Amino acid sequence: MFNQVTLVGRFTRDPELTYTKDGTPVCNFTLAVQRSFRNQEGEYDADFVPVTVWRRQAETTCEYCHKGAMVGVKGRINTRLYDNKDNKRVQVVEVNAEDVRFLKLQPGASEAPPESIGLSTEPFPAGM
């Protein structure tokens, strides 16, 4: 089986950093990804994709990225089901990121992270 997704888009809001009960950092954000075709009004629509990043990459993403920053995300689709407070079954589809590449940070953002962190500010290689 093959489950891999690559997205390039912009943060719709500042990312949120939380920690699991055992102290593992987790960062959640929504990525606005422009569609490659125009709608009936001649404008480009966007898809809003929820993304989750874990561990050191979660901390670095939350430190350096803010609303409007453009990133490339490589990861896998994750689906889960739960019952909400009204006892209705809800399905969530999100991207579990394995790699986040900082493509364009917004003005006023901290300096780009050092290469020793393991994240690249370079765009994805050609063909990605």
Structure write-up:
This protein has a 5-stranded mixed barrel. The protein has one helix at 55-64, and strands spanning 5-11, 16-19, 25-38, 44-54, 70-83, 89-104. The protein is globular and about 50 Å long. The chain is built from 1 helix and 6 strands, in the order E-E-E-E-H-E-E. Helices cover 8% and strands 52% of the residues. A hairpin with a 5-residue loop joins strand 3 and strand 4. By secondary structure, the protein is mostly beta strands.
Beta-strand content: over 45%
Our measurement of the CA-to-CA distance between the termini, rounded to an integer number of angstroms, reads 20 Å
In total, the number of strands is: 6
- Taking all Cα atoms into account, the compactness measure Rg is 16 Å
Shape field? globular
Low-confidence stretches: 114-128
Element string (H = helix, E = strand): EEEEHEE
Mean pLDDT: 84
Specify the helix fraction band.
Answer: under 10%
Strand arrangement within the widest β-sheet reads 1-3-4-6-5
Give the SSE layout.
Elements: E1 5-11, E2 16-19, E3 25-38, E4 44-54, H1 55-64, E5 70-83, E6 89-104
Parallel strand pairs: 4-6
Antiparallel strand pairs: 1-3, 1-5, 2-3, 3-4, 5-6
